[in-house]
Amino acid sequence: MTPTGSSSSGADAPAGVAGTVLVVDDDTTVRDVVRRYLELAGYTVTPVGTGREALQAHRERPADLVVLDLMLPDLDGLEVCRRIRTGTEASDVPVVMLTALGEEENRIAGLQLGADDYVTKPFSPRELALRVTSVLRRAGPHADAGGSAAVVTDGPLTLDPAARTATLRGTGLALTAREFDLLWFFLTHPGTAFSRQQLLERVWGWDFGDQSTVTVHVRRLREKIERVPAEPARIATVWGVGYRYDAGLGS
């Protein structure tokens, strides 16, 4: 982790965002520093050191967001994320993963399991706090994906940005915050090809970042909205460019 400096340099208090954060890391120093910065930003923090403690805390007192280290002494972060997403008490709680440099495969695996964002170690605690705020704003029940409360439809696919709900053929879709934002962006910009970098900037708000993040989220969306994900009708790959949403082609 990068030097923290004095506590007065902590994260800016989030405007209109408050909540609880479960911080999972076996390094006591990391837990304490992250807790301090998140508390300075106005959050209530529950710090734990193992994967099993994280799952127990998630069952007993579900948090609004989980900060989850990949390297844990019992259950690793990927297994914890998998159980949170698909266990008997499956949840769409936003997950921000902490990954080390060189853990690209694990980072991609985490995104495939439904993590909403990641921060690479060594990291700035203030940056992490800002990422937490960004994810919670997007995931909130009244979050507006793109500045408009208008419901967007494409045949049997419907997105309601005010309620943050999506349905396909009358069945609700379980989308993470980032998946919802990406799908909303595609639906409101049909027929236009965007590069992965453009999607990172316009959907994630990142000026830089791992473009595989976009690739993984597109793959996950295809699995949820395409009849044949390997032969997508809605989200087309534009070779040498990126992706384009083709409205009216899904059924």
From TrEMBL:
Keyword rRNA-binding annotated: no
GO cellular component: cytosol; protein-DNA complex
Any Gene Ontology biological process: regulation of DNA-templated transcription
InterPro entries noted in UniProt: CheY-like_superfamily (IPR011006), OmpR/PhoB-type_DNA-bd (IPR001867), Sig_transdc_resp-reg_C-effctor (IPR016032), Sig_transdc_resp-reg_receiver (IPR001789), WalR-like (IPR039420), WH-like_DNA-bd_sf (IPR036388)
Gene Ontology molecular function terms on file: phosphorelay response regulator activity; transcription cis-regulatory region binding
Record's keyword terms, sorted: DNA-binding, Phosphoprotein, Transcription, Transcription regulation, Two-component regulatory system
Domain OmpR/PhoB-type per the UniProt entry, residue ranges: 149-247
Residues with PTM 4-aspartylphosphate: 69
DNA-binding region: 149-247
Listed PROSITE patterns: OMPR_PHOB, RESPONSE_REGULATORY
Response regulatory domain segment(s): 20-136
Domain of life: Bacteria
Protein name (record): DNA-binding response OmpR family regulator
Organism whose genome encodes this protein: Prauserella isguenensis
